[in-house]
């Protein structure tokens, strides 16, 4: 039985999937299986995988296109590992990712969520992401994150290609909600982090690629099914959960403004607690659309120059 099950949902990523799988096969820690869930790709993705000669790579074929959550659930049901981790089909791991996850699982026996820092990659430029941590930690440090929701107020403390969960935790929390087509990671993170502790490596060991072909977030928010985050506001075990949810409402409102979906923008503006937002965030939401568009274009231009700006 492998220690790790690596679940890779796949849909039309022929340009990236080979490098993604190779980044797993070249891990310094080798006790793993790779489950690629082909969600009815219509390009050459499956052909690319079939050229990889490694018995640890298993392809599970969906009969119909079912989405990201269903693909992850298929992988979870087939997984044999004690720890389950996910890797998007266009992301990458550094060679020591699984090594650090293994070390975290041994060092923090009270934890069931294990994660590392990550890089954001845009047009081959690597960017670190601002985290809401009290201290500046060295890359080699292992820590327990006392409050996931507080630590993720600026940017997520981990991305879904840099986190792993014990099989025990997944069995208790359950599968991904297949009714959610946008924000399923947010829903799952809330369900996990209100129940289990998070151990963390401060070294970036995963690469989250931005701006790639056919990326799900690039398709936009309009018409998608979002998680019902208001249902979690009754959870009183964490005082920062409400603030975390408010930040997600801000993100949704910003996306609906970008898409000119005035009805949904109005809905999320009404749900927002503006006292919990920064002045820059309020400016973005309340500014005329032409000015909002100008600011977003400026942000995109600066990102191409290697300068990342945020509204935090």
In words, what does this structure look like?
This protein has 312 residues and is an alpha/beta fold. It folds into 2 domains: 214 residues, Spore Coat Polysaccharide Biosynthesis Protein SpsA, Chain A; 77 residues, no CATH class. Helix 8 packs antiparallel against helix 9. The chain is globular and about 55 Å long.
Give a concise summary:
This protein has 312 residues and is α/β, with parallel strands linked by helices.
Number of domains: 2
Instruction: Count the beta strands.
Output: 10
In whole angstroms, how far apart are the ends? 44 Å
What is the CATH topology of the largest domain?
Spore Coat Polysaccharide Biosynthesis Protein SpsA, Chain A
Low-confidence stretches: none
N-to-C series of helices and strands: EHEHEHEEHEEEHEHHEHHHH
Counting DSSP H or I runs of 4 or more residues, the number of helices is 11
| CATH hierarchy class name of the largest domain | Alpha Beta
The CATH architecture assignment of the largest domain turns out to be Alpha-Beta Complex
Give me the CATH superfamily of the largest domain.
Spore Coat Polysaccharide Biosynthesis Protein SpsA, Chain A
- Choose one word for the global shape: globular
Share of helix, binned: 25-40%
Which class do the helix and strand fractions yield? alpha/beta
């Amino acid at each position: 039985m492998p220690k790790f099950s690596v679940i890779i949902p796949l849909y039309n990523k022929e340009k990236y999937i080979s490098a993604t799988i190779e980044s797993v096969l070249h891990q310094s820690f080798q006790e793993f299986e790779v489950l690629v869930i082909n969600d009815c790709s219509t390009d050459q993705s499956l052909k690319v995988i079939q050229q990889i000669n490694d018995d640890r790579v298993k392809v599970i074929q969906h009969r119909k296109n079912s989405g990201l959550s269903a693909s992850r659930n298929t992988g979870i049901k087939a997984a044999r590992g004690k720890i389950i981790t996910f890797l998007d089909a266009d992301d990458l791991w550094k060679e020591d990712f699984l090594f650090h996850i293994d070390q975290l699982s041994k060092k923090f026996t009270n934890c069931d969520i294990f994660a590392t820092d990550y890089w954001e990659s845009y047009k081959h430029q690597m960017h670190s992401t601002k985290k809401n941590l009290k201290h500046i930690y060295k890359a080699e440090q292992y820590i327990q994150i006392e409050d996931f929701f507080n630590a993720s107020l600026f940017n997520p403390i981990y991305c879904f290609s840099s986190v792993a969960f014990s099989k025990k935790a997944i069995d208790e929390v359950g599968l991904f909600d297949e009714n959610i087509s946008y924000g399923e990671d947010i829903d799952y993170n809330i369900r996990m982090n209100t129940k289990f502790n998070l151990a963390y490596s401060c070294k970036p060991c995963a690469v989250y690629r931005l701006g790639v072909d056919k990326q799900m977030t690039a398709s936009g928010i309009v018409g998608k099914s979002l998680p019902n985050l208001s249902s979690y506001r009754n959870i009183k075990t964490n005082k920062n959960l409400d603030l975390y949810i408010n930040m997600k409402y801000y993100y949704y409102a910003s996306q609906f403004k970008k898409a000119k979906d005035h009805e949904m923008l109005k809905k999320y503006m009404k749900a927002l607690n503006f006292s919990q937002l920064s002045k820059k965030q309020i400016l973005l939401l309340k500014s005329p659309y032409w000015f909002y568009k100008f600011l977003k274009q400026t942000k995109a231009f600066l990102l191409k120059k290697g300068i990342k700006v945020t509204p935090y």
